[in-house]
Amino acid sequence: MEEAHAQVFFRQKSIERNATFRIPEVYHAFIVSEGGCTGRGCTYIVMEHIEIDFERTVSDEQRAQAISELISIPPPPGVFGSLSGGRYRHHFFRDSQPPVPFSSATELEYNINRCLAWYNSVAGTQDKVDFSNEPLLCYYADMHPSNFPIDKHGQLWVIDFDQTGVLPSSFMSYAIAAHPKKRLPVHIRKTIPLPKTSNLGPLGRATYLIKVVCNAFDPPPLPNNRTEADAESPRTD
To answer: Which end of the chain has fewer CB atoms < 10 Å from its terminal CB, N or C?
Structure first.
């Protein structure tokens, strides 16, 4: 249900701020259980119909403008991760979902750096992330053009709020720079107002580790019985 809550939030705020795009109104949302004891199910969202003009394609400039307006929406006070308090999604994580709902930037930073400590011990690097000076902002991570349809009247819409929430600003910078499909050209990305960050390189290496090596943020033992603190310094042997 997190996606439905996020869509309602972004729609309300975009209306208040006279956004250049529209977001479909949510009429109803419900979960159909798969049965058994798994507690899993499928979420269905009943929303406003859009008469999409499939002959028109959103421009890179329109996408960048919509993203700029979305991330300019102030996060609700005290919120980290999900806008509704549940699980949140971002393609940085394995299967786009953190293994646990980290509740603060400090907690997320610590666990990412645990994985990077293992990488540092192997590669002789000093990678680490630092979110201490970054603002939290509302992110919209799935920027595929299909999520920005244009209707029969030429109106731009934004749909698919599955990968949204509140995280340190470098996660939005990472989403823009490393989106798996249909990335924005570099000169267009630069028009999106985001703070400069030195975390993109470490985040790029961390996402590989998290998805391939460090299942559930649980890195393998450090080589040669080295500690996580040792791993912050390059190897000399």
So the answer is: C
Assess if residue 25 is contained within a domain: no
The structure tokens 């890195």 sit at 219
pLDDT per residue over 88-120, tens digit each?
A: 999 999 889 898 888 999 999 999 999 899 889
The pLDDT tens digits of the residues spanning 190-213 come to: 999 999 999 999 999 999 988 887
Radius of gyration over alpha carbons of the chain, in Å? 19
Q: Does pLDDT of 217 surpass 70? A: no
The rounded distance, in Å, linking the Cα atoms of 212 and 223 is: 18
CB 114 within 8 A of CB 217: yes
Nearest to residue 97, comparing CAs of 45, 182, 40? 40
Tell me how far apart the alpha carbons of residues 105 and 132 are, in angstroms, rounded to a whole number.
Answer: 8
> In total, how many domains does the chain have?
1
pLDDT at 32 over 60: yes
Let me know if residue 15 belongs to a domain.
no
Contact 165, 88 (CB under 8 A): yes
Extended strands (E) in the chain: 26-33, 41-47, 136-140, 164-168
Burial annotation 38-51 (CB, 10 A radius, 16+ → b, else e) = eeeeeeebebeeee
pTM score of the predicted model: 0.85
Residue 26 lies in a domain: no
Which residues span the domain enclosing 54?
50-232
**The predicted structure's pLDDT at residue 219:** 60
